[in-house]
Write a structure and sequence with these properties.
Layout (H helix, E strand, L loop, with lengths): L25 H13 L5 E6 L3 H12 L22 E8 L2 E8 L13
Antiparallel strand pairs: 1-3, 2-3
């Protein structure tokens, strides 16, 4: 046995350093949203979370719905993703890590019909 890991078809391992826990300030949130607007339809990693998946799922839900959930306060900084419906947020669980992905889909009412560009 060589000690090298066995290759698994379709699985690619990407090794990276752990992301430090940093809470973005208003300018960083705005720059992130602007970068997404420059690449409509492209998913970007919004955040990685440990612990129960419910928290990440609720956070994605809040951002998807204007930054608030019923009975909860508005997520600070979420206004950079206004108007509601301009961005899609989704939650994924990967190897025990909860991830939130986001993409800009256009401003509701100003989108081109599908199939036209």
């Amino acid at each position: 046995m060589s000690g090298a890991p066995a290759a698994i078809p379709g699985i690619v391992a990407r090794f990276e350093e752990e992301t430090p826990l940093l809470l973005p300030n208003a300018e960083e949130w705005a720059a992130f949203a602007d970068a997404l607007r420059m690449r409509p339809g492209v998913w970007a990693l919004f955040g990685q979370y440990s612990g129960a998946s419910g928290g990440a799922r609720q956070y994605a839900y809040a951002l998807r719905n204007g930054g608030a959930t019923p009975g909860c306060h508005r997520v600070p900084g979420a206004q950079v993703f206004d108007p509601p419906g301009s961005f899609e947020f989704t939650h994924r669980l990967m190897f025990g890590e909860n991830r939130i992905y986001v993409r800009f889909v256009g401003i509701p009412g100003q989108r081109e019909p599908e199939g036209q560009s």
